[in-house]
Design brief:
The chain is mainly β and 83 residues long. It has one helix and six strands; from the N terminus they run H-E-E-E-E-E-E. Strands 1, 2, 3, 4, 5 and 6 form a six-stranded antiparallel sheet that branches. A hairpin with a 2-residue loop joins strand 3 and strand 4. The longest helix is centred in the first third of the chain and has 8 residues. The protein starts with 13 loop residues before the first helix and ends with a strand.
């Protein structure tokens, strides 16, 4: 009989995750499919995002580097911590 082990995870509220990644390298995926990578410096209740050292990726290819970038929240598909 094969044995499998499940990874135990604790439940975390989205607001807790967002507090945890503040000041960290993140990937912000837009509804259009474009990714922005940079340091999360600001986030508001509308999911408007400010990034420092932002880079824009289209189809996985680096297209542009920005010092700072502001992303309007209604364009955001998801935010993930950059590993």
């Amino acid at each position: 009989v094969a044995s499998c082990s499940a990874k135990m995870t604790t439940k975390q509220a989205p607001s807790d995750f967002l507090k945890l990644i503040h000041g960290q390298q993140v990937i912000v995926k837009l509804n259009s499919g474009v990714d922005y990578r940079g340091v999360l410096t600001c986030l508001d209740g509308f999911m408007n995002i400010a990034l420092e050292s932002a880079e824009e990726y289209v189809n996985g290819q680096l297209k542009q580097k920005y010092g700072d970038a502001f992303i309007r929240g209604n364009n955001v598909l998801y935010i993930s911590r950059l590993q």
